[in-house]
Structure formats: structure tokens, C-alpha cells
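Worked problem 6 (solution included).
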Amino acid sequence: MQSAPSIFSYRPYWAKRYGIATELPVSRAEMEVLGWDSCDIILISGDAYVDHPSFGMAVIGRVLEAQGFRVGIIPQPDWTSVDDFQRLGKPNLFYGITAGNMDSMVNRYTSDRKIRSDDAYTPDGAAGQRPDYAVVVYAQRCREAYKQVPIIIGGIEASLRRIAHYDYWSEKVKRSVLLDAKADLLVYGNAERQVVEVAHRLAAGEPVHNLTEIRGTACLTKIIPAGWSEIDASIIDKQGQLVKKSEHDSGEQTASGISESTRTLIRLPAYDQVREDPVLYAHASRVLHQETNPGNARVLVQRHGDWELWINPPPIPLTTKELDRVYELPYRRMPHSMYGSRKIPAYEMIRFSVNIMRGCFGGCTFCSITEHEGRIIQSRSEDSIIREIQTIRDSVPGFTGVISDLGGPTANMYRIACKDKAVEAVCRRPSCVYPSICSNLNTNHDPLIKLYRLARTLPGIKKILVASGVRYDLAMQSPEYVKELVSHHVGGYLKIAPEHTETGPLSKMMKPGMGAYHRFKELFEKYSQAAGKEQYLIPYFIAAHPGTTDEDMLNLALWLKHNDFRADQVQTFLPAPMATATAMYHSGKNPLRKVSYKSEEVFIPRGLRIRRLHKAFLRYHDAENWPLLRKALKRMGRADLIGNGKKHLIPAWQPAGTGQKDQENRTGSRARKGKTFRTQHTHGVMNRR
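Solution. The predicted structure is:
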């Protein structure tokens, strides 16, 4: 893996003399109190401003402040006019724009494209405080406000839309958001390293159009610079040899590296091509996901009309020392004081939590974590984590002695990495744990066990909970970890995500089979009993994922009934931008393998009726779903599952006043001609009854 200068090694900007702000200013009045006549950088976000390291806007703001820059924040601006975007005046260096901690479309709409009734990142959970495609709208307003000011876009919305991407809400392949926003530069992934470099180079007088080679960024150019060799992957039948076959197709990791120049680029199919050809789109997605390892990723180029979209390799992950400093910057750890007593639901959920690591090497095809944060785990030091727990204990109002979560994207990937850095640097596996745990992965949980034990013995700490999802197939490599977790860090329920029971959909999700779940369940119950605790596993499942048939959902429903699980809320697959599963959904092809017009077809549960049915199987116990399920079971030749005995899935009788939603939905579907999907996308718990 290549190294990079520490983000804290730059000479501080001259404005450092103004010192540290208690909270970054959101108004001219606050700027005046700080003695500022202007901001060097202004951050725009679709989220409320919470000065906490779990909120990306606060992290970037504090990191830039630590470099000496004067940073102002405009949270959730009124996008209907330019006025709000001028409230802090003209920034000296650039506008930094993010939609917030979520893609604005995922935030605003359910999977049936209905507007959500609330927004966890807004005071009092109020909905409607951000526009559709927020990055584009905010960038347009910033350009109107001050035409010559550079615009840098980032955050998860820009990150996952950095390339031509299928957009579920418009049912179209859209251009890179860089073009639609008319921004000068896009930063993707965790952006501290690239944003710090951008800020210092702009402060030194470099024009923004010169910043073309920074890792973790994308820009536009008219021509390819001289001196670059090109691998043509723009046509499926003439894609060139991107990597050696052993690395490209087998799914196995090899140490026999590729002899590749640092000035080699890969030409993807152009926007016009992937817009018209779903198979070519799937091929482009496969190539993109093979170029995500910072150790061997190459520049990607995709033609958009008269422009070349130039995507540099991912940023070098932060070191433990850098990550410690990022998380120990002077966050107030509270929402901005302008909100008064109003509650911000997302903050209430994480106010007493501690993030111990970043990244995920699971590679689940429906998930955006790996695409955004990368699969190289970045871990904080034990001392830094302990100091943050003590800070929460000593300074956060309302703390009762319980740390609500000690985790990250995955609870138990702390300090887990490849055994050999040379092997890691050439690896192109999309997952370190699928189809099985890689033999080169160090699965030692001892550092995490040590951290848990130290944290729970701190004075004033009553309980350390682990609320982040546990990768159970990984946890089983350390029974001692499972014992520690179950005995001391579960608050009655532990959430895990098998996602399905059947091999068809699991293979398209890149998730382990149910054998791993059952082995983990045995350990969980064994150690719960030994600790004298009544505790339950909370498994999550997904309806209507690519590769899922009606029979698959029926078998999942039977498994749920057999194990006495009843889902209060369910998750229906939502095709997020750039995800591998989204490429499957759009193309009907499997980009986990080489894509061609004759390659593996993937069954897609597409359309209102089948998606409603798959959701109904997850909620087989809901009487509102019984008419739909009876009809489906008869069609599938499984009428034997209709009856009033224990062996039956649903009863033959219908309670009075129920089943009306089914009729209403059928009527509505005829009126809509099946164009939209009527399923709910929520992350909820499973009640064990």
C-alpha cells in the first residue's frame, strides 16, 4: 500500500491565529464574535448541523479548522432562492457541498417513491427540508451566489453518483453528478485527505482546474494528458485484459502482482453507451468495482459528450494516528445552539456512541459502505477510544453511564486486516469474507476483546453496548469474542443480518449461508445461558432483492414461522446508486462474474405485484396480507400451506375488517398501470414471539 503525508503535516494557514470556535459559525453575527471578516471555506449540507464526529459535515469542518482555515456552515439552506447561500458572504477559497449523511433521494423517498413523513437529520424529524438531488440544487445556488467561487462536491450522494449511474427514482441512467452540478471538483469516499490538500493548494494560489491528479477526486477534462497508456474496456467484446485471469474471474486472491504503470488508465463505456445498453452498464459496473483497492486501482475515464470524466484512484486510508486526531478534534458533541431544545433524531440515537473504525470488507452487493468508505479497515487506537468515552462521561449532558454503541460500519472488524501488505496491495476480491473467509485475512479479535474489557471497567461507566451490526461469520473465528460480547455487551437483543435463507439470493448479495447463522446462534444461546441472561438475536431480511424468486420468499417465510419470528418492519430492496445489486436490477445480469450478452441472467423481482408479494411473505403473520398470500400459494401449487394448523403458513379464515389494503392496492395498481412499486423501505427490528 502506498503511503501519503499526514493530513496534519501541512503548515497551518495564517488564519489559525483566530483560534478554535466553540461551534462553527452559521451566521454573520457568529463570525463577528469570532473576529472574522470572511470565511475561507463555506460548507453547505442537507443535514442539520450537529458538531459530532458521526456527522460528516462536522468532521470536515473541524479538520479544515485544524489546518487554520476559517470554516462557516450553512445547514439545510432554503434552496428556493440564492439568499441563504449568501448569508455568510463570499468564501475566499471554495464552497464545499454535501447532501448530508444520506443520499437525498434515499432520505426523502421510500422504495415505492413515496415521500417519507420524517427526516432523522432534521430538527424534530421534520420532512421536506432538503431538495431532490440536493447536491445539484445546492451547487446551482452557490454558482448563482458567487459565480467565480470554486465548488467542491462530496459526501455520500456525490460519492455514489460520481460516474454514470442508474437512478431508481427517475428510472434512467444519469450522468455523473459532477456534470449536472457544474462543479469544479468531486471528492469521493472519506474525504479528509483530499479536502485538506485541495484547501491548501487553493490557498497557495493554484487554480482549481489544475487540481486534476488528487487521489479520491474526479474532474472533467477535454483531452487525455500526454504520457498515459490506455486499456480499452469500453466494449464488452474488446475489453482488453484488465487483470490476470486468476485475479479477475476466480474470486481468489493471489500475490502474483500485475505489472502496471502508475500512468495507466482504463476507458469505461461512455455515458451514451451505458445509458442505452443495460448489459454494457453491468460490464462498466464490474470494471469500476475492480478498481477500488487503493493499492492497485487505476484512473478510470468515461466519456460524457464533449467531456472526459476523469476519476482518480481512491485515497490512501488514514493511519491510526491520523484517525485518532480526526476523532479527537474539539467537537462540541451537540447540535448547534440555534436549535435550542428541538430534538434531532439521528443525534439522539448516536449521542453516547463511539466510532472505533471505518470501512468494511464485507462487500455486500446492496450496501454502499464499501463503495464509500472502502474495504481497508481504518482503526483508532485503544487510548483514543478510551479518551472519547471519558469525554462523553465527563461532558455530554444527560449521560447516564451507558455507552450506546462501541462500533462502526461493522461492529467486529476492528484492527482486522490482510496478513500480508504485499498481497493486500494487489488484491481485487470484492469481499474478504465471501464466498468464504480469505486465508490471508487476520481474524484475530483479541484487540477488540481487550478494548471491550478495558472500556467497561472505566469509573462512571455502567454498561458498554454494541449496537452496530455484527458480522457473525467473522465473529465465529473467535469464540472468546462471542463470549465477551454476549456476556457483557448485549442489551437484550443483538442485531445481525443474514438477509435471506436461500442460496439464490444470498449468492447475489454475497452473504454467507444460514449454516453460519445457526452456528453463531448456538454460541449466542450458550453464552447467554452461561451468563444467566435472556437475550435474543434480531435477524434482518431483505425482500425483492435481485435473484429472489417467489419460491425463495416462501421458503424464507416458512423459516420465519418455524423459528417463531414476526417482522414488525421489513426492508425492501432499494437500488442505491452505483451498488453492484443495482447493476443487477437494471441489467438483469450478474456483474460478480464476467459480463457478456450471453452471460448469467439474474431474475429480478420487478414491478408492483411481485414486490408486494415478497414483502407480504416477510410479514406472513399480518392479516392484511393473507388474501394476497392465499392467491399466490394456490398459484404456486402450495395450497397445503393454507389452513388453521401449526404446519400451515396462513389461515383459511379472514378476520373481519382486514384484507382491505390488498383490495385498495390492487385498484391503485390498475390505475397506475404498474409503473411504480408499493413497498416500504424501513430498517426495523424483528419481534420474537
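Discussion: The longest strand covers residues 536-543.
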